[in-house]
Amino acid sequence: MKLFFIALTILSMCLYGCKNTAKHKHATTVHSHEGSSHDHKTEEHTHSHKDHKHEEENHKHTDACHDHNHENHNHENEEDNHNDEIIFTKAQAARTNFKVEEVQPSSFHQIIKTTGQILPAPGDESVLVATHNGTISYANNKLTTGSAVKQGQPLFYITSKNLSEGDYYSRIRANYEKTKAAYERAQNLIKDKIISQKEYETIQLDYQNAQIAYEAISGKQSSKGVGITSPLTGYIKNILVKDGEYVTAGQTIATVSQNKRLVLRADVSEKHYTALPTIQSANFKTPYDNQIYALSELSGKLLSTGKSAETNTFFIPVTFEFNNQGNVIPGSFVEIYLLSSPLENVISIPVSALTNEMGHFYVYKQLDEEGYQKQEVKTGANNGKSVQILSGLTAGDRVVTLGAYQVKMASASAAIPGHSHEH
User: Fold this and answer.
1) More confident of the two residues 343 and 421
2) Residues with Cβ < 8 Å from 224, sequence gap 6 or more?
């Protein structure tokens, strides 16, 4: 039994020894493997260091490329600045109404924009009325509103031959001859004091009245009746009767206007009342031809400035008078630009120099004989003919004032083939 326990103890010791030996060998193997891994990491570190150098070289190369691209970018910017120029040749300019003007500061009036009406000037029109009862007929079947007439020209005839009161001319002539004979007889009787002075004066007055009536129609009688002639040279403004219509003495037939002097009446809002004393002149634009007329060029003058608003309106009338040297139509409604206090050293350009794109205004500056550049400007007051420039232009700039639209079209088109332009 004692031998059995000794053998079991020896076997247990052998098994324990084998187990420790295996653990030691395994640890040694793992350590060796870790050492190998460490070497592998060292190799990877060395390789990474080489790669880092390679990346540094690539980075330097990239920087060189970047510098090269930057130079190219600057070159492209120079080309872009050059491409802003619009080429509009002298030959193109010669085919259109083209003009370039130099911008210089000058005086510019403050503007009150409003509306108004063109009216005939006092004494510039004459109204024709019927001299007696009768049937009216036109002297010319081409007589219409707007027809040109001359002073003394027959326009209408009035006849009363077929009326119950008889022919007007015959009655006036008969009365004139009767009163003339009575007056001649009274002259002999008063010498012999056969009639009184009072009776003589009554006969004389009857004769004078009959003479005036007869001379008023003398020479105007024709087979068509008594003529109504034009009192002045001008145009027929309106005709108020029809051919063949019955008229009565004193009835208005037509109006003749000379259109030499006209009145411009501006209706100004009450909010501008304090500025009315500073108003000096005006420009106006007609609706039928969109032309701007300046009173300073039509011998215009300020007639009056209202002191209160007209009945049933909120507007104060300002009235001017001017010569009708153009085709201004009396009675037409117009846009009016009242010229108020002057502003000094203002840069302004003609309205024709502006082009509008999406609510922004542009002009075209001249760079050289055939080169132009598009320039945005900010506008201020507008008097219909010129516009104030707040920014975008300076004194000495040369701007296209006529033909800006043609330059705009040239900028939208491709470059002209075969054309070279050097600076």
Assistant:
1) 343
2) 137, 139, 157, 159
